[in-house]
Amino acid sequence: MSLSGWITIAAFFLCVVAMTRPLGGYLQRVLEGQPHFLGRIFGPLERGLYRVAGIRWEEEQSWVQYATGVVLFSAVSFVVVYALLRFQVLLPLNPAGLGPVAPDLAYNTSISFVTNTNWQSYGGETTMSHLSQMLALAVQNFVSAAVGIAVAAAVIRGFARRGAGTIGNVWTDLVRVTLYVLLPISVVVALFFVWQGVPQTLHGSVEVTTLEGARQTIALGPVATQEAIKMLGTNGGGFFNTNSAHPFENPTALSNFVQVLCIFALGTALTNLFGRMVGREREGWAIFSAMALLFLIGVGVTYWAEAHANPAIAALGVDPALGNMEGKETRFGIAASALFATVTTDASCGAVNAMHESFLPLGGLVPLVNMMLGEVIIGGVGAGLYGVLLFAIIAVFMAGLMVGRTPEYLGKKIEAREVKMTMLAVLCLPLVMLGFTAIAVVTGPGLSALSATGPHGFTEALYAYSSAAANNGSAFGGLTANPFWNLALGIGMVVGRFFIIIPVLAIAGAMAAKKVAPATSGTFPTDNGLFIALVSGVIVIVGGLTFLPALALGPIVEHLTMLRGTLF
Amino acid sequence: MTRQSSRSSTTGGLLRADLLLPAIAESFRKLDPRIMWRNPVMFVVEIVTILTTVLLVHDLATGHAHAGFAIQINLWLWFTLLFANFAEAVAEGRGKAQADSLRRTRTETLGKRLLADDAGCYTRTGLYQPIPAPELAVGDVVLVEAGDHIPSDGEVIDGIASVDESAITGESAPVIRESGGDRSAVTGGTRVLSDWIVVRITAAQGSTFLDRMIALVEGAQRQKTPNEIALTILLAGMTLIFIFAVATIPSFVQYAGGHIGVLILVALFVTLIPTTIGALLSAIGIAGMDRLIRFNVLAMSGRAVEAAGDVDTLLLDKTGTITIGDRQAARFAPVPGVSEQQLADAAQLASLADETPEGRSIVVLAKEQFAIRGREMHALGAVFVPFTAQTRMSGVDIGSRRIRKGAVDSVLAAVGAEAAGAAEVRAIADDIARQGGTPLAVADDGRLLGVVHLKDVVKGGIRERFAELRRMGIRTVMITGDNPLTAAAIAAESGVDDFLAQATPEAKLDLIRREQAQGKLVAMCGDGTNDAPALAQADVGVAMNTGTVAAREAGNMVDLDSDPTKLIEIVGIGKQLLMTRGALTTFSIANDVAKYFAIIPAMFVGFYPQLGTLNVMHLATPESAVLSAVIFNALIIIVLIPLALKGVRYRPVGAAVLLRRNLLIYGVGGLLVPFAGIKLIDMLVTSIGLA
């Protein structure tokens, strides 16, 4: 560990804190339909879109209508993406002449991008045409992120409104988020990446003769535009197979820093939006702080773990002071790689700038646990906020009773219906993560995809299903996805997305209808250090304990074995 | 049995020996899955326990080794179930004992059913036919005479009688019941001591107050309360999560090339799911109701008890709650030219024979301030002139000397508006009224002496109680029929947060609705028929037992002692109930961390010896580790039964402080205690060679 490493991490955290309020304020203006700068420019376009699509934009929706809209929108998106991938050979902008994407892969990829997971069972440059990249994948990068933010906004409205029957209009939210938030920021960030050296072209690959005289094909394409939204929308699906470790996706230390900032930008801003909309920004900061606490612990542990050398490699005479550089880019080093790995799994981004599989067991444990907790540490755009609110509801329910009142959050009673929906959402993650892992590690097709044996192979499987269910999309690496995996991971992603979205919208609907009891000194405050500690504790104990046996058989036993000199 | 004695006897013996034996028997009876089913967490435990027992029997039949360990685990799993049932049975047992004593009072009585006379009226002297109480219908009219038991609940329509209600209230002093007004309700099973009353029956047999009371204390009608349902869902959800966590382990273990027995998996599962709170949840609820009953308050539903914990606004009647019922003389205010002593002397003379509390307080005040001793009326040759509604004055005539005290207007009218000092008396009187007092003018032979300041006396300690309530986050509102000026003065003196002056039943109802519209929960108590709408509207409506039938029907609690100040205690009891639930839930879930550290290494160390490092408690063997965790999990239920029954102590401090304290005790404590507990049990188990 070095001072510069810690400074990088500290600078990152400070920038995140600094961005939270201004972005939160902007989100509020956009989502509440208040006047803002871009609205004056794109307002006619927005209204034109509504007219073309026949959307009654001023009309509010109940939670059922809202949820139906989300599901329908995603279903149509799935069909469109699937079709584009299957027929890419017949469509333009395919300079490399890539053939149709195999059915199971197309299915897996469509779900992956529609659910904002961006699990990639393929190498982008060798599978997807430019049209597929731009029209199928990049479009989903925008709209799947917009869906997350829209759902979060609807949930926040549920908490903020009193005695209301509606939680917003899904179409309006989707249009506004895409038009005023995702697109403009992406344009700016993409230009920044171009400046840093990221290619942005519609040409195919370039053939070059290297200094050694060998010929090499260098893949190019519209990388910068996809890169921006890949980070901002916590998508994580890279243009190239090696994702942000590729020098064209992430050329410099500065581009790397901006990439990690983009991953957290909207997730943290949503906590602020939450505070603003419920009327007390402190409530948002409390949620932010619980997330930040878990983030800082995670990044600290990862950095500490990776700064240690693998004893087996040190035994070969490599300077142990270098730490574990296996699978890391020298232009980023240990700290920036540890930071990236933590951030990308805290948020459900899944982009990688180093190979998580090559992390030491404890270093790899942190990204795994981050995903198992359900991506609530900042989390995916939108998904992080509504995910953490589920844990806040559990925390309030358990501890709220201890002040001698029936539990309430922000003045709203938490009753049987909310608890039922919360548990439904919380249940589905371990079901998918553990259930599919259990099947995969004892069946032939499941096992055949694993590249490693022993605990490390186990971790590969566990990581993959955790990544899918948490809609993260990062891979531990080493997996050779086959139809079984593509199918199972696809199911995992759908469950992890919609079996959370539908219950949280149901909660939002129920909460919106409730009256608000005014806070008194008898009310349990949800904006102080105690609540922050409580929510973090509940996230770790309720969200994490379930996975302890699995973790013991994966990274933990691997770590203990490594200390005794055996590697997998 | 008075209230005091009943309370001390029950708090003394939380686990009374005479209740334990039936409770043990009941614990076995409750193993019936049809009963167990109501409690999902323990029901799941029962299923897996039966499963392991079947496996054990199978293993024993086929002569497998390790049976000793399996038998012990099995035993402790059954103990876990029995302990849970025992907790509930003990909680119910106390109510059952009380119900039995109530049932004894429900003796077979004969009612004297009156027949209507020609005019359709019922009179005492009319004809009656004896009819067994169970055959009485609603609307029948019965005569109850001295020595008779009142056959069923009803309303007095004629007569007045003293009634012994000790069977219901535990209060041995008889109460007066009369027709009309707010003292007209009678309860079946109580006994008329003197005189007679004619009662119209208002409750059918089986739904009388006594029947409902028996059902309530027995817990026969116990419905899960809303919060209990929500908590049960949470616990069931956690149980499901741990089913996934445990059910997937065999396949993980198979991958790792190891093997794991069903018994160990069941042990892990049972220790992980929230059995502690699952086992104690219903006992907590029953104990909460029981605490109210011991407090002589009957809650008609558990919902009301929960609501009591949530109350934001307390409506309190001024008279009897905030002030003691009567006004007391506080000060003598003479007009210029008259000394205080002169005024006191005359006022005392005028009050010598006045038996009203106000009159007596004047005599006492004069004695205290000026050592003027009470004199004998006879010795003075004085003749008492009593108060009448016409004169609105009282006083004495000593020979030709006429001393009068009374309402200022009346006294001024009697002496003539032009009399000396009239303007001063008026000024003093206005001043007193502004301070919330009642002025009483005194005149001696047509000469105005001054004014006696009568004051509502605020109960001692009430100011502190209100401050306490404020810290709890509860707003108090005083309800009074007084004018706003008087009300404001008393409100200021008593420290109440707000007041409603010149309150009519409609104004009361409006106030409740207004508070509720702001999302607040309102509690109030009342006794009169005109209180009924407000009682029904309030979230917690406590009806006084002395009140009318309408009031008792409208409220969701009945205070058998008819003591309005109890509202404050009721809120505390509600809070205590919720706190106990929260504390034990948090404790139960925090326990899981230690249990994992006991069982995970034990489970996996056979094929991954490295995982022995996780055995941070240094438990002796894998078997002893698993056994200790299971034993701890069972014993903690027994250990926590007293806490579940007594409730977590509630102190009126702010929520933030309360939460910090409870989180420290039950959250952090819940994390640490099992580490010590399991280690201790492990040492015991190994030392006596059980594993």
Briefly summarize what is shown.
Chain A is mainly alpha-helical.
Fold topology:
The complex is a heterodimer of chains A (568) and B (691).
Chain A lengths: L2 H29 L5 H17 L9 H24 L16 H12 L9 H4 L2 H31 L9 H27 L9 E4 L5 E4 L4 H10 L20 H26 L2 H26 L4 H4 L18 H14 L14 H12 L10 H18 L7 E2 L2 E2 L2 H25 L3 H5 L5 H16 L13 H31 L15 H16 L3 H16 L5
Helix pairs in contact in A: 1-9, 1-12, 2-7, 3-4, 3-6, 3-18, 4-18, 6-7, 6-8, 6-9, 6-18, 7-8, 8-9, 9-10, 9-12, 10-12, 10-13, 10-19, 12-13, 13-17, 13-20, 14-15, 14-19, 15-17, 15-18, 17-18, 17-20
Chain B lengths: L2 H10 L4 H13 L3 H4 L3 H22 L5 H39 L4 E5 L13 E5 L8 E5 L8 E11 L1 H4 L5 E4 L6 E2 L4 E11 L7 H10 L7 H22 L1 H7 L6 H11 L2 H20 L2 E3 L2 H9 L2 E5 L5 E12 L5 H12 L5 H14 L6 H4 L1 E4 L7 E6 L2 E6 L1 H8 L6 H13 L3 E7 L2 E12 L3 H10 L3 E5 L4 H11 L3 E3 L4 H13 L4 E5 L5 H6 L2 E5 L4 H6 L2 E3 L6 H25 L1 H13 L17 H25 L8 H33 L4
Parallel strand pairs in B: 9-16, 9-18, 16-17, 18-19, 19-20
Antiparallel strand pairs in B: 1-2, 1-3, 3-7, 4-5, 4-6, 4-7, 8-20, 10-15, 11-12, 12-13, 13-14, 14-15
Helix pairs in contact in B: 2-5, 4-5, 4-10, 5-7, 5-11, 5-25, 8-10, 10-24, 10-25, 11-23, 11-25, 12-23, 13-14, 23-26, 24-25, 24-26, 25-26
Query: Structural class per helix/strand content of chain A?
Result: mainly alpha
Q: Overall 3D geometry of chain A?
A: globular
Mean pLDDT of chain B: 85
First CA to last CA of chain B: what distance? 53 Å
In total, the number of strands of chain B is: 20
Which stretches of chain B are low in confidence, meaning pLDDT under 50 for 5 or more residues running? 1-12
Oligomer: heterodimer
Q: What does the model show?
A:
The complex is a heterodimer of chains A (568) and B (691). With 568 residues, chain A is mainly alpha-helical. Chain A starts with a helix and ends in a 5-residue tail after the last helix. In chain A, strand 3 and strand 4 (412-413) form a beta hairpin. In chain A, strands 1-2 form a two-stranded antiparallel sheet. In chain A, 64% of the residues lie in helices and 2% in strands. In chain A, helix 1 runs parallel beside helix 12. Chain B has 4 domains: 17-95 and 222-292 and 572-688, no CATH class; 110-216, Calcium-transporting ATPase, cytoplasmic transduction domain A (Distorted Sandwich), CATH 2.70.150.10; 310-322 and 459-560, Rossmann fold; 329-449, Calcium-transporting ATPase, cytoplasmic domain N (3-Layer(aba) Sandwich), CATH 3.40.1110.10. At the A-B interface, helix 14, helix 15, helix 17, helix 19 and helix 20 of A face helix 8, helix 9, helix 12, helix 23 and helix 24 of B.
